[in-house]
Design goal:
heterodimer; A: alpha+beta; Alpha-Beta Plaits; two-stranded antiparallel ribbon; elongated; B: alpha/beta; seven-stranded mixed β-sheet; 8 strands; 18% strand
């Protein structure tokens, strides 16, 4: 079975730290950062980037559309 | 494999719809409105009807929806969005006209407008966000508030003797001959979001087929009004809202 690697790019200044993408992630990739952004929110970030499979579940659940998801097939 | 090898244009799976503007939404963290805005944007983008779509925004939290979707908008008085949409749709029959209303706007002050617009079978789409509370004004009881639900005007929970029963307006509208497509969806999981997107797409396609009024209810959360975190609000919605407001298509002709 082909393996997939993915990556999530977070627009950290627009993120409101609602935690919904962290819950929607099936691989435990995303987590809220210790640091805060300009508005004081703990923004979402890839805490475990190697586990990302690029499933794209996090993108649509984000109410502020701050996530961009990439996926590539590993031979 | 390095992240820079993955983050390339050709590997893109999901990105913000270009129809959504760069304005930061004023909604609270985790608000369902943002998800539904993104879905409407992606449906309009996929159908290629950006230049032919007119939205009518309500009074409520989503009153500023015109700041976030790059289409034509009109702003209606409280509850009167279906009446304004009727006028736009009749003057411009080739346009895709939709209203975007909350439960305080649609099910309370705008009950007459939505009933008669649906009964006339106006060729419009009505998107109804039901979070069982008046979010913008401070979490007061709405017609759709559940029995026993605590709000700022029902601090001991909604009492049916005093406040009556929750209004299932979607089921009421399904009884009318003018409606062609009536459905209830939610946006709490990726799967539910995909279903809601398909429902919205079908609703806009029905406008083209002139199948009467399409009504899409989205059961949403109001984490600020419910005094919960967004994750708790989603769980509360599944446990308490869905038994009263079951998901699925109610009418599809």
């Amino acid at each position: 079975m082909a393996k997939f690697r993915g990556a999530v790019v977070v627009d950290t200044e627009r993120c409101k730290g609602c935690d919904l993408c962290v819950i929607a992630c099936p691989s435990g990739v995303l987590a809220l950062a210790r640091e805060v952004n300009g508005k004081g929110y703990h923004y979402s970030e890839m805490a475990n980037p190697d586990a990302c499979i690029g499933c794209g579940n996090c993108g649509p659940v984000c109410p502020d559309s701050v996530l961009t998801v990439y996926k590539v097939k590993v031979q | 494999m390095e992240l820079t090898d993955i983050i390339r244009e050709e590997n893109l799976v999901y990105k913000k719809s270009p129809l959504l503007t760069d304005n930061v939404m004023h909604y609270c963290p985790g608000c369902s409105h943002g998800v539904v805005h993104a879905l409407i944007a992606s449906v309009i983008e996929e159908m290629g009807i950006q230049e032919k779509t007119v939205g009518v925004s309500p009074v409520g939290c989503s009153v500023l929806a015109y700041n976030y979707l790059d289409i034509d908008w009109a702003e209606a008085a409280h509850g009167r969005a279906p009446a304004v949409a009727t006028g736009i749709s009749r003057l411009h029959p080739d346009r895709y006209v939709f209203t975007y209303q909350g439960d305080g706007d649609l099910a309370s002050i705008g009950t007459a407008e939505v009933m008669h617009a649906c009964n006339r079978g106006e060729n419009i789409v009505i998107v109804f966000i039901n979070n069982a509370i008046y979010g913008m004004t401070g979490g007061q009881m709405a017609p759709t508030t559940l029995v026993g639900q605590v709000t700022s005007t029902t601090p001991r929970g909604r009492d049916v003797k005093l406040n009556g029963f929750p209004l299932k307006i979607t089921e009421l509208l399904a009884q009318l001959d003018g409606t062609g497509f009536v459905t209830r969806q939610a946006v709490h999981t990726p799967a539910a979001i995909r279903k809601t997107k398909n429902a919205l797409k079908k609703a806009f396609e029905n406008t083209k087929k002139e199948k009467g009024t399409s009504f899409v209810e989205v059961v949403g959360t109001c984490s600020s009004g419910w005094k919960m975190t967004p994750a708790e609000a989603n769980r509360w919605m599944v446990e308490n809202m869905f038994p009263k407001y079951p998901l699925g298509d109610i009418k599809d002709i």
